[in-house]
């Protein structure tokens, strides 16, 4: 089977990550329960008339995909695979609200048409005129990893050569209100730099779009090699270390072979224990980083984690703002990513330096 490489990356997040010339040099320290993305200049990528008709999630996805394609040097890809937990939730809210407000009459179809989960993938295909494989995974907080795994399998088997993948989720007012009511969002505004010290339940929610061009052909500008991806729907806290050890063993690695551990801590006092099991246990002598204080928590936030790990591998630099511990590590060859949300949908992703 062929090897799979990340040939380009793009990120629109709550930080200025759309600027490729910097790597988390200037950090925005949000103080909120919910954080929105820092918008790039969408007019540089989408005609203003078209942008006005697009929901925020579609704009983020289309622009991030164009950024990734530009960096890859490609005009076309063989397939488009997206992951999203909530899809275009703002248009879903608009359509349902219109049904209620107008007593189910005189409804315009635009919001309904754009509310489906595969709208982003479809819009990207229309922009590129790509008639290849187009699939959207809606697997809660494993949505992006499902897209990643699908692309990896197709490239390994040489079914495709270049695949655009991405994770995208947007915030919706009504959905945010519901998450606050059920304590999935923190009850108080928290400074993102102090997220892990909050000691309260819930997370700081966010939104974003992170896209990658994957290929089975290594380029001089490739970021990383995707060695393996493993998903678990359920995994007990006691079995996390065993699962991580077995995952590494299956890929002929030991704990000491991991140069960097990327964790999805979100400050939820009820569920961060899954990460603490690894950070204070078998990986207590490994350099560790986290990222959801920068991006916020959303179903495809792990795609921001992959963006971070890819940048670290290529630049061989580790921004101070993401460090969970401080160990003398200067050379990064093997990175392990672990993510879960509220004790479910666990994922392990293994990256290696090209």
From TrEMBL:
Keywords of the record: Transferase
Protein name: Beta-ketoacyl synthase N-terminal-like domain-containing protein
One Pfam short name: ketoacyl-synt
Domain of life: Bacteria
InterPro entries reported for this sequence: Beta-ketoacyl_synthase, Ketoacyl_synth_N, Thiolase-like
All residue ranges annotated as the Beta-ketoacyl synthase-like N-terminal domain in the record: 45-218
SUPFAM superfamilies on file: Thiolase-like
